[in-house]
Design brief:
Helix content is 42%, strand content 15%. The chain is built from eleven helices and eight strands. The chain has helices at residues 17-31, 48-55, 81-86, 97-103, 107-119, 132-136, 140-151, 181-198, 201-206, 217-224, 241-252, and strands spanning 6-10, 38-42, 60-64, 91-94, 123-128, 164-167, 208-212, 231-234.
Length: 260
C-alpha cells in the first residue's frame, strides 16, 4: 500500500519563541502549497505556543520533544500530555536516543510515555536506534527490534495505525554520517516485520517508519526511494528553512524549484 510520507523537524534545544516563530514562518514560505507530505514541527517546550500560532490553519502539525507519563504530580521540571494538548500539540517524540543516553530513559519509561500519549489521542513518534558498538557487533536488528517491542507493549491494535516509528542510528545523529539506503531499508523492513508480529500485517502496512540521522537534501531522495522508508525525523537540517524544505520536497517526490 502507499503510505503518505511524513517529515518531522526536531529543533531540540534551539530557539527562543521569537527565533522559533521566524523559523516556522520561513519554513512555511519555503514549502509553499506543498500537499503531498505530512509535516510536523517540534520546537522546544517554551516555543510551542508561538509555533502553534504560526502553523494554525496550515496543514502543518505541532509536536513536542518529550512528555511525562503522569497527568500531574510532584515531578519537578516535567510536562504532561494534557499540558501539551492545551498548547496545540498533536504529536510527541518519545524515546529519542539523546533522552535515553543523557537522561537514563529506559524502554519501560518509553512504554509508559507511549501509553500516556495514545491514551490522550496524540500520535507518538517512537524512536529506536543502535549505537556504533552494537552495529559493529552485528546486533542492530536485535537491539532495535527489542526497543520497538518494549516501547509498543501498551499499544492496542486499534491505536496502532496512527503510530509513527523513527529509526535513528545513534552513530548517525549529528555526526554527518548516515545509514546507506540499503542499511536503512534493512532495518525498516525488520521493524515492519516486528509490527506485523505485534499487531497484524495489515496494520503494519499502515504504520509509517521514518529515518533519522544526519538527513540532508543530498541523501533524502535516495533514502525515501526505499520501500519501507516513509519519511524523516530531521535534526540539524530542520533548523535551516531551505534545507528542511528541500528534504520535505524529496519526501513528497517533488523536484526542487528551478533557479535563475
Amino acid at each position: 500500500m502507499s503510505r503518505r510520507p511524513v517529515v518531522a523537524g526536531n529543533w531540540k534545544m534551539h530557539g527562543t519563541s521569537a527565533a522559533a516563530t521566524a523559523l516556522a514562518q520561513d519554513i512555511l514560505r519555503a514549502i509553499g502549497r506543498l500537499r503531498r507530505v505530512d509535516i510536523i514541527l517540534c520546537p522546544p517546550f517554551t516555543a510551542l505556543p508561538a509555533v502553534a500560532r504560526v502553523v494554525k490553519r496550515r496543514r502543518v502539525a505541532l509536536g513536542a520533544q518529550d512528555c511525562h507519563w503522569a497527568e500531574q504530580g510532584a515531578f519537578t521540571g516535567e510536562v504532561s500530555v494534557p499540558m501539551l494538548q492545551e498548547l496545540g500539540a498533536t504529536h510527541c517524540i518519545i524515546g529519542h536516543s539523546e533522552r535515553r543516553r543523557d537522561c537514563g530513559e529506559t524502554d519501560a519509561a518509553v512504554a509508559r510515555k507511549v501509553q500516556a500519549v495514545v491514551a490522550h489521542g496524540l500520535t507518538p513518534i517512537v524512536c529506536v536506534g543502535e549505537t556504533l558498538q552494537e552495529r559493529d557487533a552485528g546486533r542492530t536488528l536485535e537491539v532495535v527490534g527489542a526497543q520497538l517491542t518494549a516501547g509498543l507493549q501498551p499499544v492496542t491494535p486499534e491505536q496502532a495505525p496512527r503510530l509513527i516509528v523513527a529509526y535513528e542510528p545513534v552513530w548517525a545523529i549529528g555526526t554527518g554520517r548516515n545509514a546507506t539506503p540499503a542499511q536503512a531499508q534493512e532495518v525498516h523492513a525488520c521493524l515492519r516485520q516486528r509490527l506485523a508480529a505485534r499487531f497484524t500485517p495489515a496494520i503494519a502496512r499502515q504504520i509509517r517508519i521514518q529515518y533519522g540521522g544526519s538527513v540532508k537534501p543530498d541523501n533524502s531522495a535516495e533514502l525515501i526511494a526505499q520501500p519501507d522508508v516513509d519519511g524523516f525525523l530531521v535534526g540539524g537540517a530542520s533548523l535551516d528553512a531551505a534545507q528542511f524544505a528541500a528534504i520535505i520536497r524529496a519526501a513528497a517526490g517533488v523536484p526542487a524549484p528551478a533557479t535563475t
